[in-house]
TrEMBL record:
Keyword flag Cell membrane: yes
Gene Ontology molecular function: proton-transporting ATP synthase activity, rotational mechanism
Subcellular location(s) of the protein: Cell membrane; Membrane
Pfam families in alphabetical order: OSCP
NCBIfam families named among the record's database cross-references: ATP_synt_delta (TIGR01145), PRK05758.2-1 (NF004401)
Signal peptide: none
Protein name as it appears in the record: ATP synthase subunit delta
Family according to the record: Belongs to the ATPase delta chain family.
Alphabetically ordered keywords of this record: ATP synthesis, Cell membrane, CF(1), Hydrogen ion transport, Ion transport, Membrane, Transport
GO CC annotation, single: plasma membrane
Annotated function: This protein is part of the stalk that links CF(0) to CF(1). It either transmits conformational changes from CF(0) to CF(1) or is implicated in proton conduction.
Gene: atpH
Length: 178
């Protein structure tokens, strides 16, 4: 995405995010946008909306399907996007809104990579440690399995990583032996 597109996206998203925080609806809006984003990713709707061969009327119909979201803020935002013929940028706006909400609330989705699936009690014990070590609030824990870690785990959120895997420890030992 170039600077021009990003400037247009910010023109729409920053006032919307500010309004979301003023109304205290960041949690609700974030969850609803996550659902919309999942639909976009499963159906490649972003490609459809950004395709120049697709008529604006068709793009409008597609976006209107999301307007009954039980959130007046989201419904109004979609209406503004439709009226200003910016459907092609809607997915990028969704991503930016979620990023801004995370950044301003300091509440992030945390990814935990491990060899085996973590139990619910392990996840609950990890949350306070993650919040303390990374200086953020945990919105949700997303787990990924990675057999190459050998053991331990790798935690990632907000461009920060905690690597407590055996693979990393073996790499450090190997480097120290050189």
């Amino acid at each position: 995405m170039d600077k021009k597109h990003y400037a247009v996206i910010e023109k729409y998203t920053l006032p919307f995010v500010q309004l979301v925080f003023e109304k205290g609806q960041q949690q609700d809006v974030f969850e609803k946008l996550s659902q919309i984003r999942a639909v976009f990713e499963e159906t490649n709707l972003a490609d459809f909306l950004s395709h120049i061969g697709v008529d604006d009327g068709e793009k409008e119909k597609a976006l209107r399907l999301f307007q009954n979201s039980d959130s007046q803020l989201i419904d109004n935002f979609i209406e503004v996007v439709i009226l200003n013929h910016r459907a092609d940028l809607f997915y990028d706006m969704l991503v930016e809104i979620q990023h801004q909400i995370e950044k301003q609330s300091n509440e992030f989705e945390v990814t935990v990579k491990s060899v085996q699936a973590l139990t619910d009690s392990q996840k609950e014990r990890l949350k306070p440690m993650i919040e303390q070590k990374m200086g953020l609030k945990v919105r949700s824990l997303k787990q990924e399995l990675d057999a190459s870690l050998i053991g331990g785990f790798v935690i990632s959120a907000n461009n920060k990583t905690i690597d407590a895997s055996i693979k990393r420890q073996l790499q450090l030992v190997k480097e120290n032996l050189k």
